């Protein structure tokens, strides 16, 4: 009798087993062009642009790899490799990224490569970690599309420094209420065939009047605005010509971004999206290559996944609402190319 009862109970248990929902896989490999994957990548791009302090904004070019881990007690972590391209907007420029122009191959384009981890929780995406590096296109590749195009030059090249000094002097000689000091040399190109130097640099106003500056060292920087300048110095017989134009922007207060439940305080230096970082006390051009993204390494720690594997920890970053129902994804990885390949 007892054997019969045990058999009936076992049969009932087995009959319920198919109705149970299967446990989610601790690791999955979605398509690189899956809508959720793209949302995670866009959050990472916004985070990188908000956290690196020098040079230019970057935009998403391609998603190379992605793996998704279940996170305890809730959520998923997207571990990705993404390719970025440099735009013509400086990181201090308030222009929205979608309105920034991608720097073309003939301008000696620069590519960024990032390893990122993004948490999806309650249909929101929060960046946990981003580690990036960048490199310019090769001179050989630029020459293939443009034989006489200017190539990138070291920021401490004597011709570059002279061009910046001359352009800044010309800018300060105009009618301004403040004397401007150099904050950063952002980009430099040499065009030997035309005997010219092209530079882009950032300046900051001071509490001195341009007409009354005897010693620039005593002028204090003002953090309420900055200027982004483009200039060309061309050597000519008996002298040189300098053409410079600067755009002065006002700053906006830094406002912390919203945080979903379960995400802790900021890890590393963070600037709210679209805001301006605090100005450093000294110019930074002397030790930063113009295309270097290695100073954008942000986020540390680890997270616990359902599989027991470990990765970057909970930090903070821009929060981007998740998409609606996912459309069928056709390609696998790498994903589609949005601009061009370097």
UniProtKB/TrEMBL annotation:
One Pfam family cited in the UniProt record for this chain: Cystatin
PROSITE patterns xref list: CYSTATIN_FETUIN_A, FETUIN_1, FETUIN_2
UniProt keyword terms in alphabetical order: Disulfide bond, Glycoprotein, Phosphoprotein, Repeat, Secreted, Signal
InterPro entries cross-referenced by the UniProt entry: Cystatin_dom, Cystatin_Fetuin_A, Cystatin_sf, Kininogen_Fetuin_HRG, Prot_inh_fetuin_CS
Listed GO MF terms: cysteine-type endopeptidase inhibitor activity
Keyword Glycoprotein: yes
Signal peptide span: 1-19
GO cellular component terms listed in the entry, alphabetical order: blood microparticle; extracellular matrix; Golgi apparatus
GO term, biological process aspect, one: positive regulation of phagocytosis
Compartments in which it is found: Secreted
SMART domains reported for this sequence: CY
Domain Cystatin fetuin-A-type: 27-133, 144-254
Primary localisation category: secreted
Alphabetized PANTHER family for the sequence: ALPHA-2-HS-GLYCOPROTEIN (PTHR13814:SF6), FETUIN (PTHR13814)
Protein known as: Alpha-2-HS-glycoprotein
Species name: Vombatus ursinus
